[in-house]
Amino acid sequence: MSKNRKRRRGIPFVPNTLKLLLLVFLVFGAIVIFRHGYIPARYSPFATVSLSDPGGIFLDWQIAQLANDKHTCRRVLRKPHIVASPAPDHGQFPGCGRYNAFRVLQAGGTSMKPPRVMECPLAAALALWLQHAVQPAADEHFGINVTSVRNVGVYNCRNIRSGLGKIFAIRSEHGRSNAIDIASFRLANGRTISVLRDWSKRNETEGKFLRAIHAAACNYFRVTLGPEANEAHRDHFHLDRGPLRSCR
Ligand SMILES: [Zn+2]
Question: Which residue of 71, 144, 169, 201 could cross-link 207, Cys pair, CB 3.0 to 4.6 Å?
């Protein structure tokens, strides 16, 4: 009798450990599912992102859940926050192409120079950043709006320039039309604020503006790289909605 009782006392630790492992597995699995947007926005327990709202703590997941929901993207990517039209899906080389993409002409009250085709979550993040971070920063630092944004590319089927060679090659988010490179911002008075020319002016209005919007971009994009990331980004901001996280 006493032997059995002893055994029973020792056993409960095993089920509890298993329960804990199961709980960790479920939480981790849920994080992966929502972070990668595997559940389309319209079936997700999280509210659909609204471009009129700067967003809360689940904004990253709300943007991600647009990736596999063409129907919701058409409803979310609307005027006056963005002027965009759906673009056909396009598969190209392995790891490259686009799915659920839109041709963006304007976003956050600015014209895209030139217009670009990009995947839906990137378009949403871009409109949110321009409207809720870039325009308020322009108003604060210059007292006027940004009217256009000059980008130097979205789609480019290539690997990340990691310097680690072909064995460790990883496709750039540019290969999926999921990254945009932005070089300059034109203000309502015709003045241009350039990443290459003005980033180093850290104590002047231009430099403060660029640093403020670079920092704010990290709230909307998963990867934000600027001139201090490396030499390759000395003249533009790289903004993407890929799986990695970096804010440099
Ligand atoms: Zn880039």
Answer: 201
- Measured in Å, residue 143 CA sits from the centre of ligand 1 at 29
Q: Are 125 and 182 in contact, with CB atoms under 8 Å apart?
A: no
Amino acid at 220: Y
- pLDDT (tens digit per residue) in 101-149: 999 999 999 999 999 999 999 999 999 999 999 999 999 999 999 999 9
Q: How confident is the model at residue 201 (pLDDT cuts 50, 70, 90)?
A: very high
Tell me which residues have their CB within 5 A of the ion that is ligand 1.
Answer: 179, 181, 238
- Using a CB cutoff of 8 Å and minimum separation of 24, what contacts does 228-235 make? 232/161, 234/195, 234/196, 234/199, 235/183, 235/194, 235/195, 235/196
Please tell me the distance between residue 98's alpha carbon and the centre of ligand 1 in angstroms: 16
Buried b (16+ CB within 10 A) or exposed e, 88-106: eeeeeeeebbbebbbebeb
pTM over 0.90: no
pLDDT in tens, 30-89: 877 878 788 787 777 888 999 999 988 999 999 999 999 999 999 999 999 999 999 999
CA of 118 to the centre of ligand 1 (A): 13
Residue 238: closest CA among 168, 146, 170, 172: 172
Collect all residues with Cβ–Cβ distance below 8 Å to 55 and sequence separation of at least 6: 49, 62, 128, 132, 219, 220
Is the pLDDT at 6 greater than 80? The verdict is no
Domains of the chain and CATH, by start? 73-247 (3.30.1380)
